[in-house]
Amino acid sequence: MGWFSKNNQKAVINFIDLDNDLMSIGESVEVTGQTGEEIDYDPSEAISKLEGQGYVLVRNKFDGDGEKPKFTDDTEVFLISFKHGERKVDREHPLTKIPSEEYMKPFTFKVIFEGTPTKVKDHVETIYESRTLTADKVTNKQIPNGQFDTDWKLEKEKFDDVEMPVLPGAHTDKKVVEGPEVGDEDVEVTVNYEPNGHLIPVDENGDEIPDVGPYRFASDKEDPTKVAENQIVPDLEGYTHEQETISPKEPGKDVVITYEKIPVKDNLYIGEQEDAVEESDAVESPATESAEQAAAGEEANESEEKGVQRRLGEQMAIVNFIDLDKDGKQITSSGPLYGLPGEVINDLYSTEVPMKAIKDAGFEVVFNNFDGKDQVQKFNNNHLLTQIFTVGLRHKRLNGKMNDTKLDSYEETIKNYVAGDDTDANESEAVIKVASATMELLNMFIEKNNKNVTAKKEKNAETENED
Known about the structure:
Helices cover 22% and strands 28% of the residues. By secondary structure, it is of the alpha+beta class. Strands 1, 2, 3, 4 and 5 form a five-stranded mixed beta sheet that branches. Strands 23, 24, 25, 26 and 27 form a five-stranded mixed beta sheet that branches.
């Protein structure tokens, strides 16, 4: 029997690209061994690497059936074939090698705000017309009529409406800019704001009062085309005015308010005014004298009970809180505040404490001409007229409607809050009562004086006619 010897044999494993004319992917793998021995090679790592590059395994003729082949007397060639994977390309799945305009077209609607008191950012809305493409995962090139391809489609047909913002000290002529239909081009709209008008104080001759105003009207908080209603007409030292509030109809138009100068002869102490009335030609009725004496006596008794001694030349001021939704009905008051000309009234009183209770009761501030926006008020040198400051409030709105949920008992709530735990409620009422009596007395003196002046003028006119 002759001797038998096994020969060394060779096996070749090729990775081929079916989508690229059966070209090899990378280098072939060669393995040697003896005839009949199992070929010692595992292609799984190479297959995983190619799949990570975008290839898809089609057929593994080496060990695709789960068994390792053996060497034979001839050189064996094993093919492992792949095709290219595919992927979708759209707004959510962009691909660098495919320009974005191939799968999305943006259309913009821009609203530009001009003439605003402060810089307002442009409103920009973008609507996309989009489609999905198919790309080769290996080459990253578009595949025409690929499996993921879709037609062009708009995400919505119309731009949103844009509400105009409310800006302090300015108004515009429209509340809303309607969003246009999406077309082939971008849309740009410019909205112009104009300054609000002014309240201009003038004297009886129609001349502007120097060193005051003009006062720009506040914007309506809910409507950018209007200015606020019931805006307070400011008090000016040395002048009176009949109109307490103003509601301009044309937001950009100035409004002239006539102020009447207080005559110097009327600028007297209360005691001096009483003397002037007694010396006039007017005849007072006993009932009127009794009312004045009662009011003055009541004020004196209040001061005496509290042990308060007034200084010579002191002025009086009052801060009133009014309900603008109830025709200016008084909610509460500071009571009389006393001080010498030039002294700061804010050192005696702050609206902070009562405002907490008032806001809890369901109100919101419309204007505060006492200490709003850190205003500082001082006692003037007018002994005849009480300085009156007003805090205008309205009922809070809920969905655009007046909310009266907590308002039924607001008077008692505010009264208790302002009085405090250590203050007698009767004392608060007494203070307000004194203030009311004092104001009535002052108004009585003014009315009498005006009647006397009118009577004298008529008498002089009659005398001149007789001559």
